[in-house]
Amino acid sequence: MTKLRTLSTAGAMIALLSGPLAAQELRFTVWTGNDAHLAMLNGIADSFTATHPGVTVKYETIPAGDYVQKLTFQLAGGNPPDLGWMFENSIPTFIAAGAVRDLAPTLTSTEGYDVADFSEPAMGLWTQGDSIYGVPFSTSPFMIYFNKDMFDAAGLEDPLTLAAKGEWDMEKFREVAKALSEANDAYGFEFKDGQGYDSRIMHAIMPPIRAYGGFAWQDGECGFNKPEAVAALTMLHEMVFADGSIVPPGEQGDYFSGGSAMTINQISRASKMPEAGFNWGIAPLPTGPAGAAPIIGQAGLAVFSESKNPELAAEFIAHMTNAENVAVMAQFFPPARKSVLDSEAFINANALIPAEQMANVSAAIEEGRVLPSHERSPQIDAAMKPRFDAFWRADADVAASLDAVCEAIKGEL
Amino acid sequence: MGTLPDSDTTARASRAPWLTLRRREAIEGWLFVSPTLIGFLIFFLGPLIAVVFYSLSEWNLLSQKTTYVGLANYADALTENPDFWHVIRNSVFFAAGLVPMNMALALALAISLSRPGKGVVFFRTVFFAPVITSAVAWAIVWKFLLQGEAGAVNQMLAQVGIDGPNWLREPNWAMVAVIVTRVIKMVGLNMILYIAALQAIPRDYEQAARLEGASGWQIFRMVTWPLLAPTTLIIMVITTIGSFKVFDHIYLMTGGGPENGTLVLAYYIYEQAFEFFNIGYASALAMIMFVIVLSLTIVQLLLRQKGSA
Amino acid sequence: MELTRTQSRILMRICWALSLGVVAVPFVFPFLWMVSSGFKSATEIFGQPSLIPRVWRWGNFVEVFEYQPFARQYFNSIYIASSVTVITLILSSLAGYALARIRFAGAGLLMLFLVSALMVPEEVTIVPNFFLMKWLGVMDTHVPLILLPVFGPHGVMATFLMRQYFVALPKELEEAGKLDGLSRVGIWWKIALPMSRPALAAVAIITFLFSWNLFLEPLVFLSSLENFTLPLALSNFTDPYGAPLWHLQLAATSLAVLPILIVYLIAQRQIIESFAMSGVKG
Question: Hey, are the CB atoms on A33 and C68 less than 8 Å from each other?
């Protein structure tokens, strides 16, 4: 009994003495639950702790589907995390609401941190004037994944070969998709993760729209009913309903289990390929009348205004996005730092993707444009969704339903 | 207690003990109900009153800014926002489809299963099983079964030569799908309420009618149905209110789509509050929902009084 | 051919069984399909429909636990539902007893007041409750999931169910208790409660299932995976990039539904009666 008491008194003394140093915890929200991702992130946290004794970083996984919502609940619910991952389509909303902090003072004053090393197009979304509200950690272009076996079965040249010959354009894409679906017991093409009609509408429609030279919105103007977008979406609609070469709404044709011959996705998805059991490759997006139009999906790091340790959180971001750690993260997340991007190491970083295919990835990162986003994207998405449901009917009048899309979102732009 | 040992009778008469039996009972009564009552005031009545105030403000959850806007949220819903009337229409369709189908099926099943016999317990167990199952699980499974061509329902329909619709992709079929799957989920509850009511009807009534040469249908119309009236009314109230509350089922099966075809009031409130973070507007919608449910209940109760008078 | 009375009765019975059997298909098939799909690969689920998987992938059921802290989420659901049940039993039987057996001013009004709650959907009060819970500092904890069912419309319903039962108990109950020198609490605990086991069982069954199946409240109040309850976890089988994992979702759904279903099959009479009581009274 007395022994116990002595012990606990001693414990209390130690706690008291070490008080000023101790126990600063950074809560960091992420949407990955992947063990390899978390191990890497924890490694970066450990190297931060080495220079900041007493600081711990706790990663909290929030599922991707509800990420923004749950994050907002935590911020508004008096239980704010300090920093976290942000999707490209939600950062404008957070900046407009004043929910994320300006990192520029910390980043510019951190020794050896070269902000200019980040490619300018990649930073566009995350900066306003001199303020930096986030630092992209993943700048991942969309690529065409193809099932080589199905191309062989149909006697077709694969997209890589076609791209090398300069023939990989939208016309060819349509032709190939149709031939593939006829030659195989599968669809020719599947939208990203089969979600093109639901949560990934933009990922489905933006590649062709940009290849045709169109846009989603610009300076408050809606682009979906402009001739370029109408032409692109008419083609897509015909591929789904006339050719039957794209997995239609409500049907299943999972590329990774052989339900489709091609799909569009980011290189992180290559991790699913080893178990797929077929030969495969990744190729650039098909070009269109407007030339090549690579498209990038981004994710960044931000410190929340509600954070209780904003300075420390900003320092951690500076640490996580320094040249050394960006190189570490490049094994999973394509970097936006030019120094890393140009390095041999990056081209060879991905064990699953051959170097010459990775070169296409690098090129796409440097030339690509980020998916459209807007400070009112939740409202725009919600207004768009029902109108695109109508567009994706077999008997839809394409032009009229795109007018309806624009009519529905113009108030939000 | 209450009396002192040395007090005389006159003193007792003039100064009656404060803690009379009645007072004691009252204190005991209020003490017994107080935990429930206090919790009810804090977590139910308080919030109900708060909604009224919230509904008068414009309030964004993310930026945490609040401004008083009077009745603007109501005006927005009732006159400006086309979605609102669409949502009301959907909610009415949903209730109008669900309530009669549920009640008719419940009554039919109850009549088939009200008398003891071989297999009765088995069928009752089967029809009631979805009631105890989580709505989330139910909606998830049906979402799969109702997929386009690959879904099990359409595959089965194809076996008998029917080309089934793309259930969850066509607004009208999606509405049909959520109604029917909801009926299957909940009909068991109304079935057992009807069975209980049927079993409470004395057998002599039916026998007497039979002796007078009434047919089965006549007995049902003239004897059973009128005697079931109170039960029918209760079931109608419960089912109607229940149909306005349905959230999880729609959240998981259709997400309010396609083309907002299944966007009902409960889901719309959730979407406005917790996806767009429009706290004020969502609160105004909540008040509107409260008024709708309250008036439906009152109307139904008035109908009962008129019926029994 | 004339049918005898017995023959026609048997024929009627067969028709009865056949027609109910057909109606029963959509009630039973989802369960069978759910379990069988839990064993399939994602591809096979959408292949030729068959209730027997080509390959029984027991691994799905292991993967479920690797993908999310599913065991933890399962435990959350169990302990939350148990807490809600115990607290509801105590509070509703206390209040129900008072409303039934103690005469005090305002009881009638109180009843009317409480009963009005039964008509108010949770969606109406969820927004202010969000801010109330924020103010209490219990966001992303299980406290709201215990408090709201206990004190919301469901708690009121339980109180009424108990009250109806207590009203019907014999008049002499209190007198016997007083003769034994019991206080009010003693009478409630030692006499009234033991006599009302069926009502308590009914409240317990309905309350447990109510809490077990709750979805809106967990959706709004919980944000970390390890705090999720089962229904929320089930709706959340997507990979880190948001793509659905169907086979895992169905395996997990089977794991969540089957234990309840088995208990139901064993105690179906008791469970069905409990719901009948609540419906009639509520």
Answer: yes
